[in-house]
Structure formats: structure tokens, C-alpha cells
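Q: What would this complex look like in 3D?
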Amino acid sequence: MLGLACSLVAGTPERSVIQIFNFSQQPVWDAPWRWQPVRREGGSGFVVTTNRGRRVMTNAHVVSWGRQILVRRFQDPRPFQAEVEFIGHDCDLAVLKLQDEAFFEGIDSLEFGDLPEVRSTVVTYGYPAGGEQISYTRGVVSRVEMQTYVHIGNRALLAVQTDAAINPGNSGGPVIQEDKVVGVSFQGVRGLENAGFFIPPEVIRHFVKDIEDGTYHGFPQAGIRVLPLQNPAYRRYLGLPESGGQGARIDGLGEVPTTKELLRPDDVLLEAGGLAVASDGTVLYRGNRVAAGLGFQLSQHGERVPVKVLRDRKEISIDLPVFVFEADRPAGSQYDRAPRYYVYGGMVFTPLCQDYLRTLGRDLGDSASADLVYELFYLRAEKPEAVRPEPVVFAGLLNHAVNANFTARGRALVDRINGVKIERLDDVIRAIEGGTGAQHLIELAGKAGFECLDRAEAAAANAMILQTYGVSKDRRL
Amino acid sequence: MNRNPFRETTFRDGAVRTGRPGAILPWIFGVLALGWVVWSTPAPAAERNGRSPLEASLVTVEVTFKEYDLSQPWNKPTRSVRKHALVTGERELLTTAQNFGDRTLVRVQKGGRGRWFNAEVQWLDYHANVAVLTVGDDGFWRDLKPVALAASVPRRSEYDIVRWRDGNLEQRRAEFSKFTVREGSLTFAPRIVLELNTEISGLGWAEPVTVDGQVVGLTMSKGGNVCSVVPTPFLRRILEARREGRFGGLGYFDFLWQPGENPATLANLKLEGEPRGAIVLDIPKQAPAGYGIQRRDVILEVAGFPIDMQGDYDDPEYGHVMLEGLATRDRFAGDTVPMKVLREGKVIDIQYTLPKAEYRVDLLPLHVFDQEPEYLVAGGLVFQPLTQGYLRSWGDDWRRQAPFRLVYFASQAPTPERPSMVVLGQVLPDPINVGYQEYRHLVVDKVNDRKVATLADLKAALKEPRDGVHRIEYLKGDSLQRMLLDAGALEEANRRVLQRYGIPQAEVIAGASANSAN
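A: Here is my prediction, written as C-alpha cells for the whole assembly.
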């Protein structure tokens, strides 16, 4: 009775904090028709109001690959079914819709506050491992910086470090200051004690605004590499005072056509998104020095960011359109979309992605795998003209008499099939199905060699191979 | 997967030798510790009564050499190891070439104890892994007797390994495992290797292997329980050819192949009959005119030996071994090898000329011996040639520990535009390089708009600054693309950096007289 009374007192956000159970199942990336065992993962969330009504906000990683998501209210034993309505894997946020609106009865939505100041105190709410009940931890805001969001792995966004304990299960729970949500707990750093990280209101608001139109786009990027400009000779050369603290250097441009048109290497970035850029490549944002990339991330996909650069010693103002960059998605972790594949003659073809590479384990360091690593992570920067839109790997071999004498056993990039250059998985199918010779000729990249399949024998063996290895369909596209 | 080791498996030296038994102090302690065990068990020690014939032929060699630290290429630390050599002729000692690179002093000792005599290297070849030494002092040769190297290796289930241990000759048994063709200890060029199985520790220091009283090989490495041995027929051929002035270096096959195991592939290449042969996957980008071999040829016969579906031939002495063995079996670099290949359904006779195994054929040379490490310091930026030695400074597990991109380059072939690479090894902090001090391991693309493949290129390019700055550009994809250095302040900065960091000279460039700082 006492507990219930306490919880009814105004200013107790715990009533709005939700416990989440996700029964998830991830694919087997090198045998993409199979699924790994179901895992039960716990996390936290909280009730918010979006333009579509009341929802539960949590981390993307709490609900990824979900087969069933159950949520529980504060001190309420009943499980409710929820489903993912929007998920942002780049910012590790998601909102869940409840099948039964009654879930929200008697719960207030939490409101968002502003970026908390460093040294100020925050309290995390959540359901971390080690017990069943809600847990609170208090800590101070240690610093605010751009951090890699490990859920996707290849994006860095604004994040806040705190010494409040953030443990597995805390993920998705609110970080509260003066009854307002000033963050969503989301990750820690191995080896770093008393340091947890939460997603700040800037990123949360960006996500909430992004989904207003019913589609999640993501965080845009300018497609520039900004590096410090502190060498005296370099500063002088670009027309800046040697000892001045302003201006960072655009060292390189990525594959974004509008950016390549509007900006040049060695432009000095003076302002990004209204924030003055310093010579160490940072901007001052609410009292925190953070990487200048922030100046572009606060905008939405397709918006224009005001940029000021120094070029040929003249200041130029540019409205730079920024877009969500999708081309390097395979280099980050994959979610929610079952891997595409095609099986023919026992050869398993699937698009190259980071999750596939992880299946190689320690073999990843072998020179045979180096071609795959290079293709996925380095080729884009080094030879953008040579990048295949969807590199395909010959992931493995389902043994059968038609392929029993293969020297290549998989783990190789596919270069050509029957003379067709393989730029994407569809090319594999087109090349195989369009083959007219007595053999299919499969050429692998690098030093992996080439193999032939007898066309008639492979066609005759396909059904048996699929049946033997329990592959219900020869393709998922 | 191809079985051709010529690029994939050239990095085994160092990794294969267990521990580091060559360092003098541990070696001596090792002898003492092991000695107790050996003497307390009666059987395997050297014959105590009849003296072993090798006592008068086997000598100890101590080699002191510079073991450069490529993270500070101007430093010249030395290390000493002890190994063995055999008296094989008039004032002639034979041993392996390992550890003779960058040597500063060679000494020999007979009888496993007593006085050391200065020795000199008369001739060596790193790829063949052969070194011939001599000693000027007549006293050394007294009581020593040459031993003959066996012309063939009799097949036995066991062989003896002989070495000096604490002044006594130790002779212990090792089991025969197999003959195989693979790269040598200092080279990517494959050759015949005898593998023995033994638990004897600390082998690989040119200990002679004997059977029926004949010397049949010298050990070159040990990994796990496998001791690798250079068979004497291989050594004899090289020594004979050298004496007759026809040793042109070790040859190798510079094409990439895969075994002709897949009948569908062979049918596609129009080969009839049983699966056989080696399918050529790739030939060097810079193959000379008249190279002969083409991609997709099926090699059916090499030097008169049929090639089977595994890519092996049946060697009359060594049994089934990889076709690469035919590049060194009875030929040297520059010799031609007759081959029969199937091309477009027709059998064609080809004369393949064996290229010489040289370190510079790799984009990142496997070794650079007998030459001080090259470097050039400019404004505190330390530029070095990118070599496999540079990568090995990350330790035995350098393939996983060193920056991925540099490791990747180690598996790439040189091109006419980029025959070699120069890397920014580190930045020695100085006012001129503020802003660059955390960068390292970047591969140089251009300096002052000139392509850079060697330090000589870099040095020439640094003579042409524009607009008062040197413009250093790194390979696309590196973490930084460009650096500018104040050209007017460079000379002064160089003086300052050399003095502050105790670097004797601003550059060491092979083939050029090194300039001092001032």
C-alpha cells in the first residue's frame, strides 16, 4: 500500500518507465536461410507522446531482430504486446506501438528537457540485470562529445558521458533531470569504469521530428572529412593568421555529388550550421567542444545547412544540402532485414556485409579474407570508381557430387559469372539463369581462382541439394 | 584456394623458429638445463666410446649482426647467435645463410669448446640459404677433416641430428615425416624441404642431419614438433654450380595456379581424359615479352614430368611434391624449363625462363639485408620504405596487429606506377610539424606533385617546393590526405630535430652517399 501511495505522488517518473522483453532471432550470415536460436533480452523504455499518439521510446538495439516484444508497466505484473513502429539504427532509438492502448492508462508521458550541463546531476531509470525491480542510479554529467554509436558501428553522433551506472538492461531507459528526459541510456565502453553513455535530447528530438512524416530517414552527413588546421605554414598558406584559433581544413570529400560540386579540398571550414568551427576541427556547442560534424547532423535529410568557408582567401557562404548516406550501410551492423541470398549448385551467394565478415572469426586476419575486408571498408575511400554497389560473396559450399571437386570452398568475393561482372546479387541470378554454355564459369576476385559447374548436372541437382540441406527456397531477394 | 605458396606463404621465417634460442645467454642456460636431462638418461646422448666422425668436421659459429629497429631506423643494436657449420672442403665451412644478414662479426670454434677464430664469409645466397665461410688462421684447420655431403637422401624412418652441447657432441634421433616443397626460411621461392618429427628443442641452427654416417641435410627451422631440413642434394647442386660459375640465383615460378581437380573446369578448358594439370590463374602484370604462359593454360608437363590433378609431380628422389620443386630441382634462375600446356584444346610446347628470386620483386620486400635501414627525416617527418620488415615490427602476429591497409599492401603486386612504397613512419615533434604530430603509418602518394615510390623520389621532390611550402600527399583513403611544410624553415628545423632526438644523419638512402645534417 505504501509503495503504491508513493508512486502516485506527482514528480515520480518511474511510473512512466517501461520494462521491455525482446525475444529476438538473428540470421546466420554465412548460411542465410537459417536463424540462430531465439534469445530473450531485457531492456527499458519510457512513455512519450508523438504526433501519432502515445508510444514507448527505447533503444533500437533493445528491440532489433524482435520476434516478439513484451512490455510491462511499473509494478504491474501483466505483459503487453508491442511492435516496432519506427526504428533508427544510426541513432539507436526506436518507438513501439502498443496493441492495447489500455497499457497507457494512468501513465503520464515524459517530456524532453535540454542538454544537461556538465557537472550537473542526472538520475537513470531502468531495469538493469541483477534484479527484477526498477533501479535508479545518480551521477554527474562528465562530458559531452561525439561518440561512435556501437549499435550501427560506423556512425558517430552526439553523446553524453556520465558516471551513473549504465548496465545491460538499462538500455532505452530515461535519464532524468528535474522530471524531464535529458537522455536515453544506451552504451558503455569496455574497460572504462564508471562511465556510461546516454543519447542527448538533440539526437532524440531529431529522431522524433524525422518520424513525423511517417518515415524514418536518419541523420544526414555532409560527406566531408574535416581535419584540424593547426600547422602554422598550412594556416598561412590558406590565408589564416598563424596563431588564430578559427577554421578547420576540409581534407577530403566523400561520394556526395552536391558536396563535391559545392566544396573543395583545402576549403577552410569557418562555420557549419551556424556554429563557428575552431582550428582543432570542433565547434562550441552549449559550452562543450565537439567535432564539427555536429553542425551538419542537427539538420534533417534533404535540408540545407548554412556553411561558411574560406577559399582562395575569400569568405564564401554556401547552403549545403545534406543527405542520409546509405552506400556504406553494409560496412555497419545489419538489422531487421533478413540477408539476401541465392543458392545454386550448392554454391551460396550473399551480399558482403560486416555481419558476414564477423562469421569468419579469427580467420578474418588471413590474407584470403583481406580482399573482403578491403572491398568493404577501404575500396570506397581509395578507388570509389571501382566500388560495386552490392559486392557478392561466395559464402560457402553445400557439398554435392556436382561441386565435390571444387578447390574454392567459399569466403571469396565473386568477380564474374559466365562473363557477367557481378555488381549485385541480382547479377548472379541473371548470369546463372542466362548461362548457355556447357559449364557455368564462376570467377572469384583476388587470388581465389575460378570454378566451373556442369550446367546440366547442376540444374538437375539443385532441388536435391536444397532438400538435403534444408534450404526451403533457393533465394531471398 | 590455390596451393601455390609464392605469395601466400612467404612470411613464415621468424614465426617458425620457436623461442629465440639464438640469443647467447639463454642459449647457454638452455644447454645446461637440458644437459642434466640428457645425461641422466642413458640412451640418446652422443656415442661415448668411439668418437663421432663429425667431431672433426662440425664447428660452432657465432654471428653478431645488426638487428635494426625500424621504429628508430638510425639505431644500430646488435645481437649474437650461435649456430653450426660443417667443414666441407679445403678451408671451407658450409652453413645456412640465416642470421648472416647485416653481420658485423663472425667467429668459429672447433670441438665445441676453447678458442674462437675470426671467420669471414666467402660467399652466401639468402634465397638459397647457403653460406660458405673460411678462416685465415692455419691453426684453426689443424685436426679438422672435411665431410662429404650425401648426393641423395636415403629413405629411413629415423635420422640423427648432431650438435655441440656444452663441449660434447650430442646425437639424437628424429622421425621422418615427409619431403615437401615450400618456401625457404629467407625466401618466397619454394624448394625441397625434409621435414622431421622430433621433440628436440632449440633446433634450426644448421645442425647436420645424418643417416648411415652420411650428412644428408642442415636444419633451418623448427615449429611445433616439425624440424625443417635443407637436404644436401639441394646444397651440393648450388655449391657445384657456384664453383663452376653457373649459379644465377634461385629460380621460381612467378605465375599463380590452382590444381586441375574440377572436371567441369577442365571440360571448360577443353581438356579431355582424366583430371590432371595445374590451371594458370594469373601471370605477373609486368610479364616480359615471350613469357609463354597465359592465363587459363593447363600445365600438363614441366621438365618432362607429368603434373597430376593436385599440381604435384612424382620426383624420383622425393616422391609426390608440388610442381614448384621443378623450378629448383636441377635449374637456376635464367635457365629455361620446357613445359607442355593445354590452350584452347591444343597442347603447346613452351620454354619458360626462370626469373630470379629477389626481394625487390615484391611491392613490400620480404627482407632488406646488408644495407642500413633507409630513412629520410624532413621537418621531423620520418619517411621510410614500406617493407615486410617494417610490418614485422608489430611482432609475430603482425598480420593481425599492424594497420590493415599496410598488411593488405603486402599481398599486392607492384605496378609500373608503384613499384614500391614510402611510408610516414612517425613524426618527431618540432614547431614546424605542429598539427601533424599524431599521424603515422601513412603511405606517401606525391610530394610537390611528383609521384613517390622511393626515398630517392622523395628527396628529389623536396627540391621543388612551390609557394614556399612542401606539399605532401598521402594515398587516398588514409586518415589524412595532405600536409604542408614550411619550405623556408625546413633546413633549420632539420638541424633542430636531429640534434634534439640524437639522430646522426638526416637520411640514409641506398645507392646514394648519405648526407649529414649540416
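A: To summarize the key features: Chain A touches chain B through 46 residues (CB under 8 Å). Chain A has ten helices and 28 strands.
Q: Very helpful, thank you.
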